[in-house]
Amino acid sequence: MDNQPKPTPSDEIDLGVLFAKIGDFFKGIGLGCIRFLALVRATPVANKALFISLTIAGAAIAFGYATYVKKDFYESSMILSSNYLNKRIIESSMGKLNLLAEEDDAAGLARTLNLPDSVAKKIKEFQAIPFIPEKELLDMEILREQLKSLQTDKKNEKMIEQVVDRLAVENGHAFEITVQTYSPTIVKTIQDALVNYFRNNEYIKKRIEINKLNLLSRKEKLQQESKKLDSLKVVIYSNYKSMAEQSRQGSNNVILSDRAVTNPIEVYNRDFEIYNELQSTERQLYILPDFEVVDGFTEFSEPASDSLPKTIVLGALFGFLASYLLVLLLAFNNYLRDFK
């Protein structure tokens, strides 16, 4: 006989009732959403005068603001690359320039950037973000995948992403600098002023100067080595020509002797290497890649600020949403009054 106790009805779980309760729960949520949407739709209809009035008022205020208060501003960006720039220098410099731009007379900004006061007053704001070339992005992506393949704990994956992203920013030496001005015709003047501002920074200036001196010294050294090799090539040529004349009569073969102490192939190869190094040095002296403008400011005729129609639409939308808020406050106030 089976002596096991039979389960009482209270111990049994009716799955049908459980699923019914779950269904009722989601059904209640769905009905609540529908009621909320119906209320949102019905509120403007029930309060037509309020919604129309506030919407028109918002559009009128936006029109007045856009016409008489707001100033259209223009935006342009340039890419500045330097081996001596980093995120901290850029952030510090942009912060100082923005503080000076916020001053009423902008005289401090004019002195700092060596600009006329009339130009400095038309500057609204500076912004800068690291600009990472595609090659560096590819290298960082390869590094990310290599680190992922080495780590076995999934918890470290987020940390790896953060480290690689941090390295990408910290190792970047190119920055996209954006300026917002109230006149589009002054961006070229501002570009020259900004480039000189960073180039004349004592930290950067000294390194640019020493790098240029090193390149000039290297160029002079390579030129001297090239002249020596040219003289050696003349001697080698004369030596081989003399040996050819001393070859056996009736034979065109050149007989090498102990006087040929230098391998001519090595001499000519070294001369070619020096020529390439000299070309590379002259290229660096011309371009100065340790500090250069990759892409300058562009003068745009269309303002970056919101246009008049867009401003009016945003004002009308704000008035419409404010109507909902006012209706909600009135309903809450009535609730408190009835509660008393």
Report on the architecture of this protein.
- The two termini are 70 Å apart.
- The protein has helices spanning 15-46, 48-69, 87-101, 107-113, 117-120, 134-150, 157-170, 187-199, 202-245, 264-287, 308-339; strands at 74-82, 123-130, 174-181, 291-295.
- It has 340 residues and is an alpha+beta fold.
- The chain folds into three domains: 22-68 and 309-335, no CATH class; 71-206 and 296-305, no CATH class; 209-244 and 253-288.
- Helices cover 66% and strands 9% of the residues.
- Helix 2 (48-69) packs across helix 11 (308-339), helix 6 packs antiparallel against helix 7 (157-170) and helix 9 runs antiparallel to helix 10 (264-287).
- The longest helix is centred in the middle third of the chain and has 44 residues, at 202-245.
In short:
By secondary structure, this protein is an alpha+beta fold. It has helices at 15-46, 48-69, 87-101, 107-113, 117-120, 134-150, 157-170, 187-199, 202-245, 264-287, 308-339, and strands spanning 74-82, 123-130, 174-181, 291-295. It has 3 domains: 22-68 and 309-335, no CATH class; 71-206 and 296-305, no CATH class; 209-244 and 253-288.
List keywords for this structure.
340 residues; alpha+beta; 4 strands
> Helix segment count?
11
The rounded Rg comes to: 38 Å
As a percent range, the share of helical residues equals 55-70%
One letter per element, helices H and strands E, the order comes to HHEHHHEHHEHHHEH
Approximately how much beta-strand content do the residues carry? Answer: 5-15%
